[in-house]
Write a structure and sequence with these properties.
This protein folds into 2 domains: 13-29 and 147-216, Endonuclease Iii, domain 2; 38-138, Orthogonal Bundle (Endonuclease III, domain 1), CATH 1.10.340.30. It has 11 helices and no strands. The protein has helices spanning 8-25, 38-47, 53-66, 70-74, 78-85, 91-108, 117-120, 128-138, 149-157, 170-180, 186-199. Helix 1 (8-25) packs across helix 11, helix 2 runs antiparallel to helix 8 (128-138) and helix 9 packs across helix 11 (186-199). The chain binds iron/sulfur cluster. Residues 157-158, 200-201, 206-208, 211, 213-214, 217, 219-220, 223 line the site of iron/sulfur cluster.
């Protein structure tokens, strides 16, 4: 971790400037997973594990045409679902998760995706990251902050986390980010950091020389690029 000795006041001031810059850069940011309902976003988010959003967006039109609601997917044949989602990887486990989740939605939640963290976490294949994504982007509820690979990497490079051991320590990174940013911006900050990670601060080649966050980033020009 960089700059672990920085005071929380200072870190909060930097976070405020980072947030302001991100709002200018990505004013309309939203999840790249195409969806038209909480059900579609839930399934897409489960499929996005270890897979690109673009790849998920390629298979979901077929999947949702055949299974347009939780009830239909809950009654699907495993082989048929596996065939459709195969290219997203880990397709056997993902099929178990999405069919299992929709079964529980039908049995316990009247066929509607629940709009709160506790109930979402009872669904097979749904952990906090998926629940945060569904709550934030489908229900407009800022319950937490999605920490995926991009958010983890940028939080570490921008020194927006001080308790995490590394960029994969999602639980601690989320807690630190929640302390730094106002609740109303939690969904925005995750989506904007993901956009910035894709466009500028890539895993292998961060473009620090053209980064608008550089003056507030302790890692600027310290990484190989
Ligand atoms: S200055 Fe470099 S390391 Fe920091 S956020 Fe920008 S691209 Fe990433």
């Amino acid at each position: 971790m960089v700059k672990s000795s920085e005071s929380i006041e200072n870190r909060k001031k930097r976070a405020k400037r980072v947030l302001r810059a991100l709002k200018k850069l990505y004013p309309d940011t939203e999840t790249a997973l195409e969806h038209e309902s909480p059900y579609e976003l839930l399934v897409s988010t489960i499929l996005s594990a270890q897979c690109t959003d673009d790849r998920v967006n390629m298979v979901t039109p077929t999947l949702f045409k055949k299974y347009p609601n939780p009830k239909k997917l809950a009654a699907a044949k495993t082989d048929d679902v596996e065939e459709i989602i195969r290219s997203t990887g880990f397709y056997r486990q993902k099929t178990k998760s999405i069919v299992g989740a929709t079964k529980k939605i039908v049995e316990d939640y009247g066929g509607e995706v629940p709009g709160n963290m506790d109930d979402l976490l009872t669904l097979p294949g749904v952990a906090r990251k998926t629940a945060n994504c569904v709550l934030g982007s489908a229900f407009g509820i800022n319950e937490g902050i999605v920490v995926d690979t991009h958010v983890g990497r940028l939080a570490e490079r921008l020194a927006l986390t001080w308790n995490a051991k590394n960029s994969k320590d999602a639980v601690k990174i989320e807690k630190d980010l929640m302390e730094l940013f106002p609740r109303k911006d939690w969904t925005f900050i995750a989506n904007a950091l993901i956009d910035h990670g894709r466009a500028v601060c890539g895993a292998r080649k961060p473009k620090c020389d053209e980064c608008k966050l550089a003056k507030d980033c302790p890692s600027a020009d310290t990484l190989d690029s």
